[in-house]
Amino acid sequence: MALPTAIYSTRQVRELDDHAIRELGTPGYTLMKRAGEASLRVMRTRWPMAYQVVIVCGSGNNAGDGYVLARFAQAAGLEVRVLAAADPQGLRGDARRAWQDFISSAGEVEPLVDGAALASGDVVVDAILGTGLSGPVRPELALAIDAVNRCGRPVFALDIPSGLSGDTGLPLGVAVRADATITFIGLKTGLYLGDGPEYCGAVFFDDLEVVAPGRESLVPRLQRILESEIGAALPRRPRAAHKGSFGRVLVIGSGPGMPGATRLAGEAALRVGAGLVTVLASPEAALAVAGGRPELIVHALDDAQSVDEHVARADVVAVGPGLGRSTWAKRVFARALATDKPIIVDADALNLLAEQGLPARANWVLTPHPGEAARLLGTDTAAIQADRLGALDALVARYGGIVVLKGAGTLVGGAGRIAAICERGNPGMASPGMGDVLTGAVAGIAAQVGDPWRAARVGVLVHAMAGDAEARNGERGVLASEVAQEIRTWVNLQ
To answer: Which residue ranges of the chain lie beneath pLDDT 70?
Structure first.
């Protein structure tokens, strides 16, 4: 089953589960059996040559999913070995029934004594803990998780890797590192936030036939940004189009010693298709910017007052790349913010914003990395990373407009909007100038589509896809200038 767009909190998924049982009349054990059937299908597709399956079961409903899978896999002719990380005599409800049905079908359960038994499997299935975990993993189950992680076999997690928070994507002490995960009823935020992608591996989904009306009543916590959005925002151009048809971008920044920042932002705006891009830089940096990319219109900015005339001719303004925090930078920043046009605020402009404590406004797009987000919220980077979705909400509430919280799983949020997440990108993009490229991409797309929210989503996605393309030969050494060039490929998918 294809991955849906909507992503829910664990509480919301439990509501969908309860709705299916109470309102639609679907027995909980029926849902558990559907989960087992779906898991078997994915496992046999993912590892078609696997014959010996080891399933590690814990103490809750996740264990029930494991026992159902064990019974179905055994019936399908696979050699199944079930290892109990917790005494199945303590199981209740549907999970207990699943265990009893497995035993009744000639299944056998062994206690998990050490990790040696796991090596007998072609695939090891993690059914230890599910999304109900809210605190640190108990020591005895932590030992089981550690054994799974050391087994040296492909690991298949049911619903969520055991020990991983279903909401934040952070390990609750310790978590299973799976090669693949099948999740049920609804995608959980923890699969995509924090360390979720690192622990989940490839994600598969089955809704277990839990459909509307229950699903329609819930507003997703997140949405996946889809590749189809690129072509919808940037369709094929009319043959009679001209340069003036695709918007004017003004990039303001590059204080002394920082010419590369505005050059990268300006080039990215050109590469995504903006019709005209002008750069305002300090006199010390302007010549270098102009020499690096002749297609840019570059002006040396000595008097901050002259910002106004350039802003008046622009459709979108981007301020911050290489700006610095000098007196000159502060004057330029103040003049740039005087506009009511869409404005992308990045880098040092974000730091100035944090220092000055300016009020919220609707016309800007803020693009902080976790460190800048921490300064904007008066906290530290660790707190941002511990709850990235909560940090996004706080930034939107405090500053208004649209916020792009950069990092692994870049988030895009805005007041009254469902937050979005980008699944693309890689660690190679943690390199100098990469944020400048994103700023230019968002500005250039905004100039064409006239919608900063849409531009932020599409800009984040094409930037990440370009980064992934440049990392095909290795993630080390990926340069922002290379990503800026590669972006052109991904805005021409129509």
So the answer is: 212-216
CA–CA dist 99, 89 (Å, integer)? 9
d(CA 44, CA 204): 13
What's the CA gap between 251 and 266, in Å, rounded? 6
2 CB contacts (<8 Å, ≥6 apart)?
Answer: 205
**Which residues are CB-contacts of 484 (< 8 A; sequence separation ≥ 6)?**
264, 267, 268, 271, 437, 440, 466
Residue 277's contacts (CB-CB under 8 Å, 6 or more residues apart) are 248, 249, 250, 251, 266, 269, 270, 295, 296, 297, 440, 444
> pTM to 2 decimals?
0.94
Residue in 190, 203, 157, 153 with CA at minimum distance from that of residue 176: 157
Task: Tell me the HSE value of 349 on the side-chain side, using a 13 A CA sphere.
Answer: 31
- The pLDDT value recorded for residue 311 is 96
Q: Is 257 in a helix, a strand, or coil?
A: coil
Q: What is the CATH number of domain 6-219?
A: 3.40.50.10260
Give residue-wise pLDDT tens across range 188-202.
Answer: 999 999 999 999 999
Question: Domain limits of the chain?
Answer: 6-219, 228-490
The first and second tokens of residue 400, run together, are 């208004």
Residue 40 contacts by C-beta under 8 Å, 6 or more apart in sequence?
69, 72, 73, 76
Tens digit of pLDDT for each residue in 329-348? 999 999 999 999 999 999 99
Q: Which CATH architecture has domain 228-490?
A: 3-Layer(aba) Sandwich (3.40)
| Distance, CA of 356 to CA of 353 (rounded, Å) | 5
What is the spatial distance between Cα 389 and Cα 150, in angstroms, rounded to a whole number? 31
